Please model this.
Amino acid sequence: MRRDLEIIAALIKPGARVLDLGCGDGELLHHLAREKGVNGYGVEKDAAAISACVAAGVNVIEHDLDEGLARFPDSSFDMVVMTETLQAVAEPSRLLDEMLRIGDECVVTFPNFGHWRCRAQLATSGRMPVARHLPHDWYSTPNIHLCTFRDFELLVNEKGLPIIERFVVNGDHEFQAHINRFPNLFGTTAFYRLGRAPR
Amino acid sequence: MGIVAPCRAHFDDCLTLQCGVTLGGFDLVYETYGTLNAERSNAVLICHALSGNHHAAGFHTPDDVKPGWWDTCIGPGKPIDTDRFFVVGVNNLGGCDGSTGPVSENPATGEPWGAAFPTVTVKDWVRTQAMLADRLGVHRFAAVIGGSLGGMQAMQWAIDYPDRIANAIVIAAPPKLSAQNIAFNEIARHAIQSDPDFLGGRYYEADKRPRRGLMLARMIGHVTYLSDDGMGTRFGRELKSGDIGSAQDVQFQVESYLHYQGTSFSEKFDANTYILMTRALDYFDPALESDGDLVRAVAETNARFLILAFSSDWRFSPARSGEIVDALIAARKDVVSAVIDSPHGHDSFLIYNERYFEVLGGYLDEALRRLDT
Model:
């Protein structure tokens, strides 16, 4: 299984109800259903990804995240997961609110625009960074809301959402000591496990 | 699929319908394609829509111009693969293609039932289909599949016989009709009933048919089956005859299409059956018994669901299919849903579409693998 999905899978309790936004080929849900008896649903808009879910026997709902998540009732899931998708949606802040309306907790991962390579490229060439974890040119990228870890945490703090756990990894999804010391400089991807804002 | 032949099953059993009327016995006409395996696990039931019947695939004679109504989808190597599935098509009770219906003789009077044929519901159909399944030695269907009114039957199957259906494939179907849907049906019924040849539904005895009414009903139906864009692409403002410049005897292509569809339908379909089928559509509401709560209605189902809708279908829109999906998720049921991009409106469910067939075929492939393990 994809290494980042393994990290997420470890965060999910057996038998949990899981909603996976932008579930791709359904690999995480397939694994969770088999190994942890999870009742999971994927949300996806890409036809090829949906076909892959169908072939894998994964519950998948064709739905565009940019239409919002009003169809999902409050507190209908234990965990709402969104991997590498936050930066590609029209309204990331609203979506984050929605995720924690639907789920008791959520896990969000996204690429770090504050990685030193991005900073260096922008500083030296004066051009929009293209990196392994951000491979698109500015005009064709689906990533329309890029942010750094620090940006994200500012938003999360503003909303008053508790960060239950945070993991930061490199481009190979490995944990390294120097990343933990300067995550916003050396981290490629972060996994945020967030809870609801206390009332 | 080649040449296929219909079969007839007679049931002596007294059947009390949901409306309370008891039939002393009844016939169902059906067809089967493919072979039932030794485990009897590969049977698929095809439920027909408003004007469909048992003849879903293949030809009855080598001279037939048209194959069965869903031949694009059923056959060797097709999404509903007859090399692997044992496919059953049935003409529903109340139909006009051989099963007991308004055209049949009412044993109490010795005359055709006509409009006096009792009201039948989707629930009644599902029950009689289960009786046919017993007769065929099928305890549990690998899948029950239908589009439109057929999809409603698939859904009712999952609710009424949770242990006799592994997969419910509900295509272009809502959880119940909207007021607008019922309104269109009522216009169709009124068109038929106000035809002087309808004679209160007793037109058989007078050797008449309410052709004009039935034609009008079908023309209205066809407008709701297509989309504005689809009609535009197919017919545009092309003229069949005449000249707009001289404003004489102009006939647009779309008029010609509607006239043709209406006329041919009025020759072959029974008006009383049409009224009965539209009533079954209107009354369908599986959540009625659970105070309108669809989540509770599907709570005891065990089937996996495939819910398909089409982007340009405004008769039963993707949002309506979505209501079923959302109820299934809330009830923690297994469900796959896809919205197929298609310009053909409600008719899309009958028409080849690469993605539609890929999802349907892919789902059935996976269903078969699951049944084998």
